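#onboarding

Welcome to the new folks! Below is a worked example of what a typical request in this channel looks like: someone posts a single protein sequence, and someone else replies with the predicted structure as tokens. Don't worry about understanding the tokens yet, we'll cover that in week two.

Example request:
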Amino acid sequence: MTSIWDRANRQLRDLAVYEPGKPIEETARELGVDPSDIIKLASNENALGPSPKAAAAMRAAIEWAQLYPDGGGVKLREAIAERLGLGRENIILGNGSNEIIEFVGHAFLNRGDEIIAAEYAFIAYKLIAQLFDAHTIETPTINFQPDLEAMLSAITPKTKIIFIANPNNPTGSLIGSEKIDNFLARVPEDIITVLDEAYFEFLDNPPDTLRHVRDGRNVVVLRTFSKIHGLASLRVGYGIARPELIEVLQKTRQPFNVNGVAQIGALAAIGDDEHLRKSKRVVDSGRAYLEKELRVMKLEINPSAGNFVFVNLGDGPAVFKKLLAMKIIARPLLGYNLPEWLRITVGTMEQNEKCIAALKKVLS
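Example response:
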């Protein structure tokens, strides 16, 4: 019998599958321990959990689970827009911000087109390009900072999209406002620039990328409820762009792509400033602690602007396995061609201290 792969779209055969952080439940089964004994510092989740207001709103929303959600996400889009000083027509909702990356691919990529992304950039960009049989032009970094001049030099008539994560996952590198502004001023108008700002709320002085949206440039800014809002399980992200660009992206979206309980949870979370401030304080103090301790241990780190640290441990996969045996899940980075490095999410201070103690044992 002929393999079904011979009938499938050719680009799917070699398409890599995105590997998320190792789940708590799987690790607990393998170690024969209770899931509550596992410390997961692999997926950049909020150690405090979701906003209490969001949790209460979602519990109440379950009573209406028989109803389809608002397919246009009107209330949530309006709430987001109001906080940003924009209009509802500037916002599109996604099943996580990853889905909006896919919307951009559906809208603008054809076979043989090109995207540009820096090396060590979030791997989803490359996977989406491959899904549409487009090519990824990977440009170099300088001290893990994307070389924006190299990106501009890589532009060809086939270039359709440029992806920049700021701060970048997994390296934590942040590009400042002046560099972003200078770069966007030199990108040809017919190219879509996607600025992925999943960790925006953790920044002390974030770049004002929305002014490029207000100026009518072909920029899509991505943000999410998965990180500081602590709603990763719900999968709610959003894109911000000029209205005509949003109209194009809306054409690629499935009806009811963001579920109703998730919309209600996100709507409550966006107004809980106290939870956001508390979450940021936990990350700021925890990240400072982790980076200080790692430096004391004479380990190389790249200063991070996200809710994680990025550390060179010599043999990332080996250290990952040893930490796993000690009930701590970190994130190895073989898929990013960074075999020496681990990414470690900032947890509660108790979790951070246990992680450092475990690393000291592993490395001794």
